[in-house]
Amino acid sequence: MVAASFVAQSAHAIHDESGETIHISFMENFPKQIQNPDGSYSGFMAEFYEYIAAKMGYKLDLVERSAFRAFRDFQTGDSAYIISTSSIANLDEGVLKSDEVMCISYSFLTKKGNEIKSIEDLSGVRVGYGVAGAYITKYAEQLGDGVEPIITIKTLSATEAIRMLAYGRVDAVFFPTLFYQPILDADEDTTGIPQELKDSFADPYVTEQVNLRFFVHPNSSIYSRGEEFISVVNEAAKDGVFWDILSRSENDKVAFCDMSLK
After folding, report:
1. What pLDDT band is residue 5 in, cutting at 50, 70 and 90?
2. In terms of pTM, does the model score above 0.70?
3. Spatial distance between the Cα atoms of 108 and 231, rounded to a whole number of angstroms
4. Domain made up of 105-208: CATH architecture
5. Which burial class, exposed, middle or buried, applies to 173 when counting CB atoms under 10 A from its CB (0-12, 13-18, 19+)?
6. Is the peptide bond before 176 cis (omega within 30 degrees of 0)?
7. Residue-wise over 210-245: b if at least 16 C-beta within 10 A, else e?
8. Residue closest to 84 by CA, chosen among 17, 1, 149
9. What is the C-alpha to C-alpha distance for residues 215 and 227, in angstroms, rounded to an integer?
10. Domain 10-103+210-261 has CATH 3.40.630.30
11. Is 105-208 the same fold as 10-103+210-261?
């Protein structure tokens, strides 16, 4: 079991027939979310929540949230659902949790010629990180005594970390693999990273695979339907719905690991 939280950066909102709005929090750009000209969103999580909403008789609307705000909303009940590693369910009594239904990879992004291919290669490396801080600490301990330590630099976002890598302020970036491609696909006006610098990046080096769950907090206004939501999520995983959706986006699928093979 992975002992680390996997917090959200964006949120869906569901409107039922009574007009009630329910927020659903999920990881920053998790995986690749695309805003359409009409303001709606498409991408893996958007399509998956549409599937869940249809099963439960809801309509869906996307609402942007910061990581801090999304996590706070989840605890206060303003956010109904969150996708995370299992340890987050221990934060409050009564949190409903699904089975481990998804698996994502964490990896290092570096520049060509400066690739990280083993934990030993992290000695003396300046690593920008955000949601993966617990793993950085673990790797530092694995290096042992008498080895130059990892230099960790906490960042506000994956985009900021990758910008720092592009301009040489860090030697590597460590985030969920699914964070990288949307940033590398975005234009310079969005990221502040010229294409020639993006072209200097090497392929990510995967080091971790993390199992994920969905949660419903007891403070949620639709907690009474929480068991139903969890059941729908579990059945969707068993029926292969996650992989059916991922199969339509190769960039997203690369960042996920098939739990049936673990």
Report:
1. very low
2. no
3. 35
4. 3-Layer(aba) Sandwich (3.40)
5. buried
6. no
7. bbbbbbbbebbebbebbeebbebbbebbeeebbeeb
8. 1
9. 10
10. no
11. yes
- First-to-last CA distance in the chain? 13
**In the chain, domain spans:** 10-103+210-261, 105-208
Inter-CA distances, 109 with 59, 151, 174, 212, Å = 38, 15, 6, 22
pLDDT in tens, 160-198: 899 999 999 999 998 888 778 778 888 898 889 999 999
Task: Take residue 36 and report the two structure tokens written for it.
Answer: 């359409």
198 contacts: CB under 8 Å, gap ≥ 6: 166, 184
In one-letter notation, the amino acid at residue 192 is G
